[in-house]
Amino acid sequence: MKAVLYVCHGSRVKKGREEALAFIEQSKPFMDVPIQEACFLELAEPTIEQGFARCVEQGATEIIVFPFLLLAAGHAKKDIPLELTRVHSRFPHIHVHYAEPLGVHEAIVDILIERMKEQQIPIQSDATILIVGRGSSDPQTKADFTRIVQLFRHKTKLNDVNICFLAAATPKFPKELKRLAHKRRSQLWVLPYLLFTGILMKSMEKEIQSLPTAEHIYLCKYLGYHPLLRDIMAVRIQEADSKERLNRKQWLS
């Protein structure tokens, strides 16, 4: 029997954990898989090991593991696979298929634009945009954000689009925020490229409020668990399932 194990990042903030679990519960009816469980990589329970065990207890013989992360950085490439290897040693008879994370996608850029429109403030044609990522030492992260900026410029026709990171990559958020606030000729929009609320959002709010020009800086809501993500998630799960079936067919032929 087939199962999906959704691996969320995890957060110390209760609301962040609740949002992730609620979204997965709402998404389950859209996935044609009999067993579906959610877990967290860190900072919360159920852990990956607990989530995996719950799938097995319900009769799963193969598990598609979906890393519910925005980009394919360190967590998706190293941390989750490492933990899965350890857990799988307890259940060697279970077939495990690893899906891709959400990745760079046009629909996620659409969510960023929607977050701007929610402010109900006319967006000026010469507005400055600062897209803020979590950050990673993985070089692919910067490459991914370059593609995100290109998509954003194409969709909005805004030219002054910048990126920064909250950790592990440069430019760092505080420095880039101050630079743009200082040179600002019009609006400065700050767009968090984050799935959930948490300590990072609070630190961004504090940083913006400390600036003398804070009233001209618009901090938008984080991406959140938007319904558009459900469609991407379904595609990634289907891709992992199809790839495994193709590999099996090639092995048997």
UniProtKB/TrEMBL annotation:
Matching PANTHER family: SIROHYDROCHLORIN FERROCHELATASE, CHLOROPLASTIC
Designated name of the protein: Sirohydrochlorin chelatase
Family matches, as InterPro entries: CbiX-like (IPR002762), Sirohydro_Cobaltochel/CbiX (IPR050963)
Keywords, sorted A to Z: Lyase, Metal-binding
Source organism of this protein record: Bacillus kandeliae
Pfam families from the UniProt entry: CbiX
